[in-house]
Amino acid sequence: MQIEKRIQLKPRLQISKIGKIQFWLGLFYGLLNAVVFYLFVFYLIDFMMVFMIAIDGDLPLQTKSISFFETSFLAATSLSLGITMMIRHWFMRPTFRFQRSHKKISLRISNYSLFIYYLVLYVAIVYIRFFVFGKTFTGVYQPVDYTNLLFIIPLYLFFVAWTEVSRYFVANKWIISAFLIGLLTIFFLNSLNIKPTTFSEKAFKIMQAEELKYLDHELKKAKEKYNLQFSEETVSALKELRSKRSFELLEKVRLAFTTDKKVSLDTIILEKILIHNFKGYYKGWRDSYAYIFPFQAYEQLRKVDSQSSQATELILVLEEFYKLSILMMEIPIDNHDNLLYQKKVSILEDQLYNYDSNEYRKMFYETIFLVKNLQKLNRYDHPMFNIETPLPPSMYRLNAKIQEKFPELVHPIE
């Protein structure tokens, strides 16, 4: 007896196999899930940023590469979720072909569990990207060069979603069409330049309103009065709190005052802005002081004409030191109700950070000593050098090296 072998070819996937109503409902359901997931994670990230800013945090660095990755990755993950939901809705009816039994699987439970699975997966990836990769502070170790590898995850999820379907149907055209539509959607969302920082940027501007207002005023003054214009990168670094760029700018300006050469006017203005928008905490307990010292500013003041623009700005640098010193004595100055004032007091009184205060005390003693002695020298016309300016008693005494360097300051303080 001849044994006949029957080869059964897989049928092509068609709307009729799914059912028109089931097809359109599944398409709508998948699209709805993708949109909800995208918006939920989008605003979740923004809310987390707002929370970090509320506790004096910084905005994450948003370069074009990072922004492209975040938008594309979230869109790709959302589309993978939506396609998975769509396919599951198409074939979740009790079918012998797919389930090998007539037992129903709860659509609600499976969909909710799948949604949570994708959410946890995305949050885990974000955690790895921002923390495990060594992001000690904003702008450091951004894994821009490796983000393309992470797109393997939504790509894998996309093909997994179609695997079960392709086991029973010829669905090549469906897979290619869905893939191309997904790519077009991702590129379209990127063209809109949507970033999950809408509320966090507003919160940052509110929290740092006084610093940003002062910065804008000084930049405008430098342009109109001295014809100086700072680069976009420098301005961005001045707006950041504790980013890599802001730390590098602090160090660059500080080192400029350690040389024997005259410091340029733009560098002096930068130091004045940095001291005024005082942040306090630097890199660690030992490296908590990031600025120049008053004697370094005075050393530059001696090298320039007393009526020059450099002299004017250097005196304003000393004035910023003076205001910080008064805060360390807990003596209110100007508008003591403003937010910037409260931040400075909290830092200087060691309420926020545990740091080595030796260098801050050195700054304080040098400032009081200089202001008192410059009052007596009567070389500079500035309200700070008015003899009626209230000052605490100075306990600073010049060592031999400083006496030799600044002989005009060698006289008793009354």
Would you mind describing this structure in some detail?
With 414 residues, this protein is an all-alpha fold. The chain has two domains: 15-201, no CATH class; 208-409, no CATH class. Helix content is 64%, strand content 0%. It has helices spanning 15-18, 20-54, 64-90, 96-99, 107-132, 147-150, 152-168, 172-191, 198-207, 209-226, 232-239, 244-256, 265-276, 294-303, 309-328, 339-348, 358-377, 400-405. α3 (64-90) packs antiparallel against α5 (107-132), α3 (64-90) packs parallel to α7 and α3 (64-90) runs antiparallel to α8. The longest helix has 35 residues, at 20-54. It starts with 14 loop residues before the first helix and ends in a 9-residue tail after the last helix.
State the gist of this model.
With 414 residues, the chain is an all-alpha fold. It is built from 18 helices and no strands.
Number of helices: 18
What is the arithmetic mean of pLDDT? 75
Radius of gyration, taken over Cα atoms and rounded to an integer in Å? 32 Å
**Beta strand %:** under 5%
Provide the low-confidence segments as ranges: 94-106, 131-138, 140-144
Q: What is the SS-derived class?
A: mainly alpha
Number of domains: 2
Largest sheet at a glance? Answer: none
Listing every helix as H and every strand as E from the N terminus to the C terminus, the arrangement reads HHHHHHHHHHHHHHHHHH
Q: Helicity, in percent?
A: 55-70%
The backbone outline, from C-alpha atoms, is rod-shaped
- Give the N-to-C terminal Cα separation: 126 Å
Say how many strands there are: 0
